[in-house]
Amino acid sequence: MKKVKGLLVMDVDSTLIMEEGIDLLGEEAGVGPQVADITERAMRGELDFEEALRERVALLKGLQETVLDTILGRIHFTPGAEELVAELHKRGYKVAVVSGGFHQTVDILAERLNLDYVKANHLEIVNGVLTGRVLGEIVTKDVKKAKLRAWALENGLEMKDTVAMGDGANDLPMIQEAGIGIAFCAKPIVEKEAPYRITEKNLYKAIEIIDEVRA
C-alpha cells in the first residue's frame, strides 16, 4: 500500500462551496434572513455553534426532504476546488471535509470530488419531512479538531503533515492544530489568528502555501 504523504481537512460552507447550505434551506422555508443572521453571528464567534445550529434547524421544521435536492442545484464549488483535490490526490494526500452542514447534501458533494473522508451533521427526517431536529453528535469546533487528529493518526501522519482550512470561528481550533492552518476568505477573528490566509475565492491558492512551507 502506498504511503499517505499528507492530509487536508477543510470546511464546506463558504470554503469548499460558495454558499451556506443552511441559509439556502432557510430561504426555502421562508425564514432566510433569520437563519442567515444566526449563521453570520455563529461564524463570527458571537454565538455557541451547537445552540445556533439547533435554533436554525428548528426553523426548518415541516420542510419536505425534496428541498435537499432543490438546494443542491443552487450550490457551487468554490473556484479551484476540483483542481486542488486532484493535485493533492496526485501528490499522495488524503482530502477530507468536516462540516457543520448536513450529510444529506455534503455526502453528494464529497462524492463528486472523490473525497476520502466526510463528517457532517444529520438532519432528522420522518415520513419525508424535516422534523426540525438534528440526530446524534453535532459537529462543533472540538469535533472538527478531533477529526483532523483522528484521520492523521489513521494514516500514520504527524500533525506537521496536515493542512486545515476554513472561514468560520468553529474552524479556528483545527486551523491552529494543523501543520499548515489556512484562513480562507475568513471572518475577522479567523483571519487574525490563523497562521496563513487566502483572501481571494480560489482554493487552489492552498497549493502555493503548501509548496512555500514545505520547500
From TrEMBL:
One Pfam family this sequence matches: HAD
Spans through the membrane: none
InterPro entries on file: HAD-like_SerB, HAD-like_sf, HAD_sf, PSP
Enzyme Commission number(s) of this protein: 3.1.3.3
Cofactor: Mg(2+)
Presence of keyword Transcription: no
Record key words, sorted: Amino-acid biosynthesis, Hydrolase, Magnesium, Metal-binding, Serine biosynthesis
Catalytic reaction equation(s): O-phospho-D-serine + H2O = D-serine + phosphate; O-phospho-L-serine + H2O = L-serine + phosphate
The organism's place on the tree of life at top rank: Bacteria
Annotated metabolic or biological route of this protein: Amino-acid biosynthesis; L-serine biosynthesis; L-serine from 3-phospho-D-glycerate: step 3/3
Keyword Magnesium in record: yes
GO MF annotations in UniProt: hydrolase activity
Enzyme class: hydrolase
Family: Belongs to the HAD-like hydrolase superfamily. SerB family.
PANTHER family attached to this UniProt entry: PHOSPHOSERINE PHOSPHATASE
Protein's recorded name: phosphoserine phosphatase
